[in-house]
Amino acid sequence: MSKPSIDVRGSRFVDAHGRHAILRGVNLGGDCKVPWPDGGTDRPSDFSDHRVVSFVGRPFPLEEADAHLARIARWGFNTLRLLTTWEAVEHAGPGQYDEDYLDYFAAVVERAQSHGLFVFVDFHQDVWSRMSGGDGAPGWVFEALGLDFTKFDAADAAHVMQHRYDYAREERRQEDRYPMMSWASNYRLAANGIAWSAFFAGEILTPDWIVEGRNVQRFLQDHYLGAMAAVARRVAHLDNVIGFDTFNEPGLGWVGLPMSQPRLKATPEDPLPVWPGPAWTPLDGLRAARGRTVEVATLGWSDERGMLRVLGHETANTAGVSIWRDDGPDPFEQAGAWRFDPGGDLVLDEDFFRGRDGQPIDHENQCMGPFFARVAETVRAVRPDWLLFAELCPYLIGTGRMFPDAMPERSVNASHWYDIDILRKKRFDPDLPPDPLKAKYFNQMAYIAWLGSKFGDDGAPTLIGEFGIPYDLNHGEAFEAWARGERGEGVWTAHAQSLSLMYDALDALKLSSTQWNYTASNRNDLRIGDGWNQEDLSIFSPDQVDGPAPNDPDAGARALLGFCRPYAPLTQGVVTTMRYADERFELELEADPTIVAPTEIYVPEARFPNGAIVRLSQAAARWTHDRAAQKVLVWAAEAGPLSVVIEPA
């Protein structure tokens, strides 16, 4: 087998020539979470067709692939975090893989290769499944667990747009029924608590929960990894595939939580963040799942910094609906966590989800470590040179908790980062001074990169697997301006400035990244957006193609100047500094002329419409500008420091 197209060397990516590689990419795409063509959350569904849906056509029909992939490559991206889901592969039933979809997925990867794009495969999920408010697992998984997803809404076991939204109303947003960004609340509710606890800790918590002859954890992971192996086998011949993501933003379930006491603050022993709002405990979730009407404490901030207090209670599952298909007892009751009792339900073990035999459950080392090892074993049985893009639960990032002590070799820290204020509030003021935000972004991303430095003795590269901004910022004012006929980059001033600050931090830290996201079906519609739970973070929309020059190769871009900027994807040596400011690109590296391939610098036409002026610090070094490819190529003359400065002609 030939050398991998992208490999790792300590904390750096390197290409087959040994050049320092910076992967700058985009997630493709946001609508891959839902079936094609009409599975978006902007349309009602009861999910009764979950076994016969198709994802062929996500991220786009194959006949449209070249247009989209050429656009992505033109904008300087060299990498795709290509989304698929467990449901897309295995929706028909256990072990029944959708062969048409696998053929389609491989065809998309092959088209990406023809456009010079690396690919790593992301098995995506959000809050476990479409039936529990997100995407990921097939519907039959709930049946295997003994759960009836058709009763989730009535039992308040999941917060699902298709159940809460009134599609007959004209309002594009219905904050009274389905507040924006509220989908994440599902991590607190029973459907997610049960599913994630079983997936990662079933062998620890419920050793007697057997599904088809195996512990529930083994059953779930075997099928998840079986779907991953099916995709791996289908793309193994394509050299642009560089690896697999382990599982997008995996949940913790109830592992680490006290059984019945709401958490009022984070502590060194229990560092997970706390939030205002309903404080569902595992006992609340288990009782509601069995059909109890429960009173859930609602929390708000107290006068003490970082401390919450109980403001009151809200009633859940007023209909008294059980989500268990045989109505119980549930596996956690059978394992000794609690007792469902007509005279009053009882907690039998307050520390059931926190410890065993007097020792705390170490979620990262006992649950995630073995899982990472299984993912690596699964994909590398198909192709040994693939990288492992590892993710922890995003709520652990910043708490001081680390990746497992033993990480598979050639792993990548693929953690995510967002400006949570922008993401949740969808507000950005371009008139505010940029320096405080720039410092904040740098420090937060530097911390994430530090996590990767703890992988083994030599550390690992960090690739920020997701970051980005909502394009419906400031109440969708850019969409309104576009609808009025305004055109040009001025429409996207707030978006471009916020993205530029993020890329400034990535450049300063020399980090790889894949921005969230590119959605081919995106619309300038507050109900639709990326087609999933009213999110709208796509850098492309067909609604932007109708500008004054629809044949413009950049047509469809949103805030092009926020993400389309020069950088050095491949360098003949190790990058020490990379910076772009005031239309001036600066690169410094420790050149290594024994590497035969040159430094490549992306010089976008959007930034350098009349060509480029290039200055090199080594007198004998040489360069050329390939304007058609939007690249400046530099060959070092000698080992040691080499600086490159590029400005518009």
TrEMBL record:
Annotated Glycoside hydrolase family 5 C-terminal domain ranges read 565-644
Gene3D superfamilies of this UniProt entry?
A: Glycosidases, Golgi alpha-mannosidase II
Name the InterPro entries for this protein: GH (IPR017853), GH5_C (IPR041036), Glyco_hydro_5 (IPR001547), Glyco_hydro_b (IPR013780), Glycosphingolipid_Hydrolases (IPR052066)
Xref: Pfam families: Cellulase, Glyco_hydro_5_C
Residues covered by the Glycoside hydrolase family domain? 60-251
Keywords associated with the record: Glycosidase, Hydrolase
- Superkingdom of this entry's organism? Bacteria
Q: Which PANTHER family match?
A: ERGOSTERYL-BETA-GLUCOSIDASE, PTHR31308
Record-stated family? Belongs to the glycosyl hydrolase 5 (cellulase A) family.
- Its name, as the record gives it, is Cellulase family glycosylhydrolase
Q: Which organism is it from?
A: Caulobacter segnis
